[in-house]
Design the sequence.
């Protein structure tokens, strides 16, 4: 009888050792990185965040150039755009971090400056290209993945970009003496406007308009 039990005892002991070893190995192994699940989304958001960072930096350069050329209206707009894209960059960064990623601020090289009218055209081209390209792809992906938090942040970016494009087009087409400043920018979502008629709170994120940054 004892001879019959021995194989069972050995088999039981080996099974217990195998289960124990598997458990210990699973504890030592690192968990699947959460970034992997959102790899495509993270790549897109990184690209968008870098674009926003570069645009904010570039518009700041354009604004300083316009100030030196005594073009206060254009300078005010470009400073407002730089601030709005800085807000958007920060929101993209939050979106990246919400997926477990980390944004590394890129090095921005100083571009060759031209005249302010050319800068406004370049700003419009760059803004339209980013909005119609990577920004739309990121937004659609967030909606398809059901990530409402990121979709909301990117919808704010899109709304700000549309307003920026409309204002840029208006300033480029406007006469030099037509006043278009001051510009107001929401510090939470980057919404921008230059209208005297406006709501008391940001229509996108409900930030009190008293907190808006004014550029004039
Ligand atoms: Zn807002």
Sequence:
């Amino acid at each position: 009888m004892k001879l019959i039990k021995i194989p069972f005892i050995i088999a039981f002991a080996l099974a217990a050792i195998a289960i124990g070893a598997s458990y210990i190995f699973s504890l030592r192994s690192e968990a699947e990185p959460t970034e992997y699940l959102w790899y495509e989304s993270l790549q897109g958001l990184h690209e968008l965040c870098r674009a926003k960072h570069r645009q904010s930096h570039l518009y700041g350069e354009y604004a300083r150039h316009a100030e030196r050329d005594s073009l206060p209206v254009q300078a005010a707009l470009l400073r407002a755009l730089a601030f709005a894209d800085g807000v958007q960059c920060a929101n993209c960064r939050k979106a990246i971090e919400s997926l477990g990623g980390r944004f590394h601020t890129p090095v921005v090289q100083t571009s060759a400056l031209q005249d302010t009218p050319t800068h406004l055209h370049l700003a419009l081209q760059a803004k339209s290209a980013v909005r119609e390209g990577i920004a739309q792809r990121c937004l659609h992906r967030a909606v398809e993945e059901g990530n409402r938090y990121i979709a909301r942040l990117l919808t704010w970016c899109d709304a700000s970009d549309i307003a920026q494009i409309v204002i840029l087009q208006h300033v480029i087409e406007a006469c030099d003496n037509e006043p278009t400043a001051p510009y107001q920018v929401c510090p939470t979502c980057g919404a921008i406007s230059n209208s005297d008629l406006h709501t008391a709170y940001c229509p996108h994120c409900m930030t009190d308009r008293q907190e808006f940054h004014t550029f004039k």
Residues 186, 188-189, 191, 202, 204-205, 207 surround zinc ion (CB under 6 Å).
